[in-house]
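User: Hi! I have a protein structure encoded as tokens and I'd like to know what sequence might fold into it. I'm fairly new to this, so please keep things simple.
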């Protein structure tokens, strides 16, 4: 079984909640990689027997790091309309003191998409200007080489390389551009697409060249593709672009976009990060 599918495995419990186990393959500094946490919350909705339609949006709020080991998720549909369904998802974990704590919360909207007029806006994919894989080589930044989750992605960085010297120099550049796919390659689905929305280096590292503590506080992802479009991507690379929007008083706002190789916008994301200094 692929490491991602192992991380997504959820077991139903008698009270209607789901139980899962953290994956060492997606471990970050003090807990699971934020993208895998988001994906498993979406998975709880995706496999729910009452689900209507496909994911339209998700907002994840990271309260505390998920502790290593077992966790419990409860996904509750709070309103079902003709075309949309609204969910609240809560993940509980056991901390070092043995207390049960709420680690993450999420709101999810699923929807039935209708065949209507459709067009692309100003978010044009820079596919034509991007060197095509495998003409470029995967990059593993030494700073993050010991983070297991980075080994689960083949990341080909085109723009947004980390600084060579961490001496606090400010830069006007804070944009990243990269190709990304699972290792080993795996057919794309909604949880995997969601997880990839969080693969980018935080733009504050590019902007400041300062090694300060940071972490995601909240992440929102909008899904523009349906299951048929994801199936068309298969296990191919996605082109991702991320850029910082504002850095102020301990918090930074990053936005990201993911396209298929043929330029179809699959998802957009926005996240607020905390940084220490």
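Assistant: Happy to help. Inverse folding works backwards from shape to sequence: for each of the 277 positions I chose a residue that suits the local structure. Here it is:
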């Amino acid at each position: 079984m692929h490491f991602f599918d192992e991380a997504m495995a959820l077991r139903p419990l008698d009270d209607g909640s789901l139980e899962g186990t953290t994956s060492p393959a997606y471990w970050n500094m003090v807990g699971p990689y934020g993208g895998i946490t988001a994906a498993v919350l979406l998975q709880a909705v995706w496999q729910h027997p009452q689900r209507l339609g496909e994911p339209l949006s998700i907002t994840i709020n990271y309260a505390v790091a998920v502790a290593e080991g077992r966790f419990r998720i409860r996904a509750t549909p709070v309103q079902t309309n003709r075309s949309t369904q609204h969910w609240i998802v809560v993940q509980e974990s056991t901390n070092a003191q043995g207390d049960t704590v709420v680690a993450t919360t999420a709101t999810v909207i699923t929807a039935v998409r209708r065949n209507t007029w459709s067009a692309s806006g100003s978010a044009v994919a820079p596919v034509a200007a991007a060197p095509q894989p495998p003409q470029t080589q995967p990059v593993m930044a030494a700073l993050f080489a010991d983070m297991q989750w980075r080994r689960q992605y083949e990341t080909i960085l085109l723009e947004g390389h980390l600084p060579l010297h961490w001496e606090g120099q400010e830069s006007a550049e804070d944009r990243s551009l990269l190709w990304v796919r699972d290792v080993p390659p795996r057919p794309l689905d909604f949880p995997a697409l969601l997880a990839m929305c969080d693969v980018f280096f935080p733009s504050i590292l590019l902007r400041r060249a300062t090694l300060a503590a940071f972490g995601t506080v909240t992440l929102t992802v909008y899904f523009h593709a349906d299951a048929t479009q994801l199936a068309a991507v298969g296990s191919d690379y996605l082109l991702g672009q991320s850029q910082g929007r504002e850095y102020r008083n301990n918090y930074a706002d990053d936005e990201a976009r993911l396209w298929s190789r043929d330029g179809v916008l699959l998802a957009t994301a926005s996240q607020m990060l905390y940084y220490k200094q």
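A useful reference point when you look it over: The mean pLDDT is 92. Feel free to ask if any position seems puzzling.
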